[in-house]
């Protein structure tokens, strides 16, 4: 059996050379890192007065504009780090500074760069630094071929704060290059209450994923104006189960007693234990005593999670719910254990103390 | 006859060398995939910062499940780290699985436990008897279940799942310390992609030798024990590069049982953890993938390439052997149980890449290595081996192995930089060389024995590793923050 020894030796030499290169790189990085960190720290100390002068806008500081505009690129990093912590005019001042230093125009040019990390970095920067000026360019990246860039674009649109981005973001939840709903959800939350009218409209949208997302967000906002539409979603037996569950949870967060009826109906009539559980939890949050009887009936459900949710909901209904739980807890069966556990939760762990050291 | 025997011995010798080179080449390709991602992350980290995840109302609550059997050495540190997580909403469910030491007493004393009526959230079968359920009265969100042990970690986890109330469950070994942001980092994929992500794991590292203070690793250091150092390199290679590469190929099979985050509803839907399995972590991931695939439901298993969890690794060859035999036994069970998925394109990259790789190189690897090495030794003994050629080939195989480990160390230094002392880095590099001689062969032997145990259907038993606990507190002047 013969072996091409020359080739094997060559491969061995190449691998050894690679190992040596890596070891040298490791040693170099290890040695210079400390020096680089202290150099960065020194530069930051030197440049911070420039940033303060820009924010103070005080001509008595004696720092000419040319100094600020001609400062090294480290200044941009300092400003970009500061931006998320600032609001109002200070934020606008620093945004203008970045624009004047050409940082924003460079990022706009990088939106169409070949490498994904350049596009991603550019759109992230624009989200922080450019306000609502480049929404169209950022929105275009919601269809980028790289998922990470698409996510960065969504986050940037949220930070930019233009409610006009709602339609773009909701559209990006579906399709071939769909964005994860959580990323879009956080971006829409970043837009604040100005997005609410568009979110309400989207409850009747085409895609189940975006309807579920919008229902969840309206619940997070606690938007009472959305309650009727959300109640319709819970009532609609043909609606996607996930959407109905999310709508039920949202109604619980909103807390309007008008929602008791559709939630009781979902708890009583649905065959989906997850919807029943969510409906029970929502009824507990609303705290409407008229839900006591259906919740008591739910304690007899076959599904342990539905029983537990009903017991917890009864505990949240106040004196009436508590009295019902105590009655059930005194009886036999699985419901008694669930009721007792809910009462324990209510009272806090005060019974049967376990002395320390007892095994 | 002699000629035939010679050919067989030589053939076996070359087979093992070729196999080793092929394995190293595949691993190197996986490493390159991972290294590419790491290099890109140096330019742009994607989503930076975890404050928005912490503040987001969309972040789901987590139940941390900790099975513990005779863990008095480190249980309080583990609990302190778990309860001290920077996470908006979490609970810890500790299962004292028939401990014979002071595990429960220590926890009862520290958290002033009181017995309660359990609130069940699932009805998974539990074989051990639930003795009592307790809750902390110190204000910590801690639930403690006492049960009799049936020698299965999965049974303890199922007992915890029956009482866990949050939508995500995190399984954590009782000898592990979480970094403060560990949950936030690993939960991020669930927050961002709640419809698709079903499981996520992060980087686990060897805690032995690290300086800890009240459940926090304040300065990662390498142990002076060479067995631990070699495992530290192994963990770096596996987590920083291997799993990143597999995850990029959408073929991640293993979320470590030491620290993994899962969707609770799915874990319950598949019936919890398989009590027959020794590799319950991998089995859980594959079962969830199979379940979702059959249901036509979306599924993503995500690896978060950031250091999040520090765990105690074996310090003696005997304990290491027991651990690796168990892993190999578990892998054999897993591959047998999910044999219909192997090579099946319906299961995507997991079916066509990951499972075949684990079958050929992880499960059968030790067979080839042990018998091949024996044949090399036999051929050399019989004087029919060209020693010069063999030396060159063995040298190449060792060099490729060393290159893999050196790459992992380079990634550590260039990115995460937890080991800051020069002497630790030097020790890692030396361990990367040393592991190829002796350790690798012993490892193959342990795995072979695990495979034999699986083939002979020996009853799987979860035996907890002897714990030494975490390093004592250093003198204040000695403390160096581990994180910048």
What does this structure look like?
The complex is a heterodimer of chains A (359) and B (484). Chain A has 20 helices and no strands. Chain A has helices at 5-56, 65-69, 74-82, 88-100, 103-110, 116-129, 135-140, 147-160, 165-171, 181-190, 196-202, 208-221, 227-235, 241-254, 260-269, 273-286, 292-298, 304-316, 319-329, 334-347. In chain A, helix 13 (227-235) runs antiparallel to helix 14 (241-254). The N and C termini of chain A lie far apart (68 Å). Chain B has 484 residues and is α/β, with parallel strands linked by helices. Chain B contains 14 helices and twelve strands. Chain B has helices at 2-43, 51-55, 75-83, 103-111, 153-161, 182-192, 226-248, 264-269, 280-295, 317-337, 348-363, 365-382, 387-416, 422-455; strands at residues 62-68, 90-97, 113-115, 130-136, 142-147, 168-172, 176-178, 197-206, 211-213, 216-219, 259-263, 300-311. In chain B, helix 3 links the parallel strand 1 (62-68) and strand 2. The longest helix of chain B has 42 residues, at 2-43. Chain B is globular. Mean pLDDT of chain B is 86; it is low at 473-484. Chains A and B meet through helix 1, helix 6, helix 8, helix 10 and helix 12 of A and helix 1, helix 4, strand 3, strand 4 and helix 6 of B.
Notable features of this structure?
A: 359 residues, mainly alpha, 70% helix, disordered C terminus, B: alpha/beta, ten-stranded mixed beta sheet
Largest interface, counted with CB-CB under 8 A? A-B, 61 and 59 residues
Helical residue percent band of chain B: 40-55%
Strand adjacency order, main sheet of chain B: 3-4-5-2-1-6-11-8-12-7
Q: Indicate the overall shape of chain B.
A: globular
Structural class of chain B: alpha/beta
The assembly state of the depicted protein chains is heterodimer
Total number of helices of chain A: 20
* Unreliable runs of chain B: 473-484
């Amino acid at each position: 059996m013969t072996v091409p020894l020359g080739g094997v030796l060559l491969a061995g030499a190449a691998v050894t050379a690679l190992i040596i290169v890596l070891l040298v790189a490791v040693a170099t990085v290890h040695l210079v890192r400390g020096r680089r960190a202290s150099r960065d720290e020194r530069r930051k100390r030197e440049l911070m007065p420039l940033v303060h002068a820009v924010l103070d806008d005080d001509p008595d500081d004696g720092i000419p504009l040319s100094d600020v505009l001609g400062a090294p690129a480290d200044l941009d990093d300092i400003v970009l780090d500061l931006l998320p912590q600032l609001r109002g005019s200070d934020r606008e001042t620093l945004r203008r500074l970045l624009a004047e230093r050409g940082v924003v125009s460079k990022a706009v040019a990088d939106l169409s760069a070949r490498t994904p990390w350049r596009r991603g970095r550019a759109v992230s920067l624009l989200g922080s630094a450019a306000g609502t000026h480049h929404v169209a360019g950022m929105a275009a990246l919601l269809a980028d071929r790289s998922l990470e860039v698409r996510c960065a674009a969504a986050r940037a649109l949220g930070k930019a704060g233009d409610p006009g981005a709602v339609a773009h973001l909701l559209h990006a939840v579906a399709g071939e290059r769909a964005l994860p709903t959580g990323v879009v959800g956080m971006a829409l939350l970043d837009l604040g209450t100005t997005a609410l009218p568009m979110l309400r409209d989207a409850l009747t949208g085409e895609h189940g994923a975006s309807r579920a997302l919008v229902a969840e967000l309206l619940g997070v906002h606690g938007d009472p104006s959305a309650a009727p539409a959300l109640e319709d979603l819970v009532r609609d037996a043909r609606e996607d189960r996930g959407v109905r569950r999310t709508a039920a949870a949202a109604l619980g967060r909103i807390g309007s007693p008008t929602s008791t009826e559709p939630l009781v109906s979902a708890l009583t009539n649905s065959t989906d234990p997850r919807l029943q559980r969510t409906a029970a939890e929502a009824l507990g949050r609303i705290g409407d005593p008229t839900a006591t009887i259906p919740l008591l009936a739910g304690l007899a459900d076959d599904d342990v999670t539905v029983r537990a949710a009903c017991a917890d909901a009864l505990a949240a209904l106040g004196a009436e719910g508590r009295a019902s739980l105590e009655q059930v807890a005194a009886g036999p069966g699985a419901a008694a254990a669930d009721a007792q556990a809910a009462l324990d939760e209510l009272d806090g762990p005060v019974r049967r103390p376990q002395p320390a050291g007892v095994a | 006859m002699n000629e035939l025997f010679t050919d067989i011995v030589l053939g076996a010798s070359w087979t093992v060398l070729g196999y080793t080179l092929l394995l190293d080449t595949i691993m190197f390709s996986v490493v390159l995939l991972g290294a590419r991602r790491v290099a890109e992350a140096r330019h742009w980290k994607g989503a930076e910062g975890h404050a928005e995840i912490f503040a987001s109302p969309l972040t789901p609550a987590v139940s941390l499940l900790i099975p513990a059997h005779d863990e008095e050495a480190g249980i309080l540190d583990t609990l302190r780290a778990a309860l001290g997580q920077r996470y908006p909403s979490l609970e810890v469910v500790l299962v004292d699985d028939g401990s014979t030491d002071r595990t429960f007493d220590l926890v009862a004393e520290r958290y002033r436990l009181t017995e309660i009526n359990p609130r069940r959230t699932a009805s998974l079968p539990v074989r051990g008897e639930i003795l009592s359920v307790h809750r902390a009265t110190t204000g910590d969100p801690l639930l403690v279940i006492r049960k009799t042990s049936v020698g299965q970690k999965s049974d303890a986890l199922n007992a915890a799942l029956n009482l866990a109330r949050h939508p995500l469950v995190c399984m954590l070994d009782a000898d592990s310390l979480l970094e403060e942001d560990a949950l936030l980092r690993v939960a991020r994929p669930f927050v961002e992609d709640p419809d698709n992500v079903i499981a996520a794991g992060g980087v686990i590292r060897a805690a032995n030798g690290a300086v800890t203070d009240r459940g926090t690793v304040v300065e990662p250091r390498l142990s002076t024990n060479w067995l631990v150092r070699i495992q530290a390199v192994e963990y770096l290679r596996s987590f920083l590069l291997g799993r990143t590469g597999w995850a990029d190929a959408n073929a991640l099979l293993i979320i470590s049982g030491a620290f993994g985050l899962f969707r609770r509803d799915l874990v319950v839907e598949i019936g919890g953890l398989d009590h027959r399995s020794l590799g319950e972590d991998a089995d859980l991931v594959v079962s969830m993938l199979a379940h979702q695939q059959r249901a036509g439901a979306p599924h993503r298993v995500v690896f978060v390439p950031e250091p999040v969890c520090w765990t105690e690794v074996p310090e003696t060859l005997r304990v290491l052997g027991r651990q690796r035999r168990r892993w190999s036994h578990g892998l054999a069970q897993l591959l047998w149980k999910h044999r219909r998925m192997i090579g099946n394109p319906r299961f995507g990259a997991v079916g066509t890449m990951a499972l075949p790789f684990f079958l050929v190189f992880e499960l059968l690897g030790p067979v080839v290595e042990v018998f091949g090495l024996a044949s090399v030794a036999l051929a050399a003994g019989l004087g029919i081996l060209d020693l010069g050629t063999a030396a060159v080939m063995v040298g190449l195989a060792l060099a490729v192995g060393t290159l893999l480990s050196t790459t992992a160390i380079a990634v550590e230094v260039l990115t995460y930089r937890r080991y800051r002392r020069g002497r630790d880095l030097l020790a890692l590099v030396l361990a990367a060389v040393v592991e190829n001689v002796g350790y690798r062969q012993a490892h193959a032997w342990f795995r072979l024995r695990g495979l034999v145990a699986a083939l002979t259907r020996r009853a799987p038993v979860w035996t907890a590793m002897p714990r030494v606990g975490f390093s004592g507190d250093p003198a204040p002047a000695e403390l160096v923050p581990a994180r910048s």
